[in-house]
Amino acid sequence: MKKILLFYLFISLACCEPDDICSESTLTTPRLVIEFFDIENLNDTKTVPGLFAVALDEQGLEIPIIGESVNSRDRIELPLNGNFDQSKFKLYKNYDINDGIVQGNPDVITVNYTTEAIYVSRACGYKNNYYLNEFNVDSDIDLWIVLSELSNNEVQNENTKHVQIFH
Description:
A hairpin with a 3-residue loop joins strand 8 and strand 9. It is built from 2 helices and 12 strands, in the order ααββββββββββββ. Strands 3, 4, 5, 7, 8, 9 and 11 form a 7-stranded antiparallel sheet that branches. Strands 1, 2, 6, 10 and 12 form a 5-stranded mixed sheet that branches. It is mainly β. The protein has one domain (28-166).
């Protein structure tokens, strides 16, 4: 009996793999990278003052994006929802809260995509890559986004821009 138990113990130890370590920088689901450009000179990036983004759920209610802050910048990374084939965001220009009232100029963008789940490892699990089909800006009476263009429809990393917005 001891020999059988030792045999099973030996087999189980021999079959073990070393623990995987998941590096977040290379093995996580990439975010959509949007860069902002000057509408008057299409090759020059242009900072959006007071840029702030919130995600919108299926009913159009705002969902804060964790880690997002108000900042003047010419680039933003947005997390796409891997459970759906569409994500909506409200991008604010000149965002501010004054006496509890949100101020700024919001434009709503809609991103349509297909999702590919990729197995990374036992420690990391799966990550999603996205393939962009469409990028739209909803019409309103005060659009600050003048033009948008897909520059790379494969969202597989955050090292390249995927969408260009001109303002």
